[in-house]
Amino acid sequence: CLATLIIMLVGDTYTLINYVSFINYLCYGVTIIGLIVLRWKKPKIFRPIKVNLLIPITYLAFWAFLLVFSLYSEPVVCGIGLIIILTGVPVFFLGVYWRNKPKCVNRLIESLTCWGQKLCFVVYPQCGSAEEE
Prior knowledge:
6 helices
């Protein structure tokens, strides 16, 4: 949210669209790479939809061209897009990777989650720790 607020201060909507479109295309490509890796490493798992591998490989070829062209034509915008993505790394380490957090940090995270749920009406808030139940 903080990164989004800072970006909104830029004031130029087209620049913001460029940041987000680069991030979207990067995430789409990584998702397709994950699909191919799973098809190769775990071929026996259930898949409700199965496509020929030629389709995602063709998509990746075009994706790589567009990504390299974007990096070449607008390196600053792409760099800022990568920085936006990397702002999630500390959040991952604080919220997910760090398993033995002090109780005060867990309470803070739970209260922020509950507050966000109430503010955005996205999920019925279930305030209180799961350990108490």
